[in-house]
Design brief:
Length: about 300
C-alpha cells in the first residue's frame, strides 16, 4: 500500500510541474460536468460522489457502490450543441470498477478563411472519449480512487488526441464527508490539459424517516484559469423523490444573480431499480442548458458497502 501511495504522489508532482511549464490549454470541455444530479447541486459533488458519475467527479466514490449501476445522460446545450454521457459502476469483491464514455457534437458551421470569406464548406466539430476508473473503500472512513481517460477532438481537418489521469479520496465520519481530487493530469502534443484541483465537503443535516438533506460545498482551481466556488443542496423525501438547488460562482467574473447566472435546479424520482433525474442550469444572457439522466441499478447482493443516497 505504501508503494501505491508513493507512486501516486510522485506522478501527481511530476505532472503538476510539467503542466506549469506549459500554458497552452486544450480540451476545456472537460469542465462541463457529468450527470443531472450533480448539475442540480451546483456541481458541489466532490465529497458526495456516491453513484456511477463518481468516475468523473471523484473516482474514490466508486468504493461506495454496492450494486451494478448504469447511467445515461443527455445534455442540451446552446444552439445545436449536445453532450451525451454513459457511466457505469461494477462492484468487485474488493473495490469497484467504473467506466465513462462521452460524445459531444457542436452542430454545423460554415468554414471561412482568415479574411472572413466563405470557403463553401461545412464543418461538423465533435469530441469523444472514455475513461476507466477504480475506487476502493480502505476502511470505514477513507476511500481512494484513480482513473485514466483518452480524448479525441476534431475540427475540420485538425484533430487532437490525448490521455489523462484523475485521482482522489473521500474521508467520511458520521454525517460529514470531505473529498479531494485532481483531474486531467496529462498533455496532448504541445498542449496542456485543464488540470483542476478540487476540495469539497458535505454534511447530512437531516437523515430521518426516509428524509435526507445534504448540504455541500466545493472549491476548484483550474490551471491558468479562475477559482470556482460551488454550493449545493439535495433534499430527498419519501425516499424516492429529490429536489436540488445549486450555485456555481466564478470568482474572477461579475456573477449577476439577477440573470440567474450559475444557478441550477434539479429534481429526481427513483425506485430500487430505476431513477430519472433532471436539471436546468442558467448561464445569464446565453440562456439555459437542460440535463436529463436515466439510471438503472442491478442488485448483486453485496451489502458490505451499503450507503444511503
Amino acid at each position: 500500500m505504501k508503494k501505491i501511495f508513493f507512486i501516486m504522489i510522485t506522478f501527481i508532482l511530476c505532472s503538476s510541474i510539467f503542466a506549469v511549464q506549459n500554458s497552452n490549454i486544450i480540451f476545456s470541455f472537460f469542465d462541463l460536468g457529468v450527470g443531472a444530479r450533480a448539475a442540480g447541486m451546483g456541481e458541489a459533488f466532490t465529497s458526495v460522489a456516491d453513484d456511477s458519475s463518481a468516475v468523473y467527479w471523484n473516482p474514490a466514490g466508486l468504493g461506495l457502490l454496492n450494486n451494478i449501476e448504469i447511467s445515461v445522460t443527455y445534455d442540451k446545450w446552446f444552439m445545436d450543441t449536445f453532450y451525451q454521457h454513459m457511466t457505469a459502476g461494477f462492484p468487485l469483491s474488493i473495490g469497484t470498477i467504473g467506466i465513462d464514455t462521452f460524445y459531444m457534437n457542436y452542430g454545423k458551421f460554415e468554414s471561412i478563411d482568415d479574411s472572413g470569406v466563405s470557403l463553401n464548406k461545412e464543418i461538423y466539430p465533435y469530441n469523444f472519449g472514455g475513461s476507466i476508473a477504480y475506487g476502493i473503500k480502505l476502511n470505514k472512513s477513507f476511500l481512494l480512487g484513480v482513473s485514466s481517460k483518452f480524448i479525441y477532438q476534431t475540427i475540420d481537418d485538425n484533430t487532437n488526441f490525448g490521455f489523462a489521469f484523475d485521482t482522489g479520496g473521500i474521508f467520511r465520519i458520521n454525517n460529514f464527508s470531505i473529498g479531494f481530487n485532481i483531474q486531467n493530469l496529462g498533455v496532448e502534443k504541445s498542449y496542456n490539459l485543464p488540470i483542476k484541483f478540487n476540495l469539497g465537503g458535505s454534511f447530512n443535516l437531516l437523515d430521518l424517516n426516509n428524509n435526507l438533506l445534504i448540504l455541500a460545498i466545493k472549491g476548484s482551481l483550474i490551471l491558468n484559469a479562475d477559482f470556482i466556488l460551488n454550493l449545493g443542496a439535495e433534499y430527498v423525501f419519501m425516499r424516492d423523490f429529490s429536489l436540488r438547488v445549486g450555485y456555481k460562482i466564478r470568482l474572477d467574473e461579475a456573477n449577476e444573480i439577477e440573470e440567474l447566472n450559475g444557478i441550477g435546479f434539479g429534481l429526481g424520482y427513483g425506485t430500487s431499480f430505476m431513477k430519472i433525474d433532471y436539471a436546468i442550469v442558467f448561464h445569464g444572457e446565453l440562456g439555459q442548458i437542460h440535463k436529463i439522466a436515466l439510471t438503472f441499478k442491478f442488485d448483486t447482493g453485496n451489502k458490505e458497502k451499503t450507503n444511503k443516497k
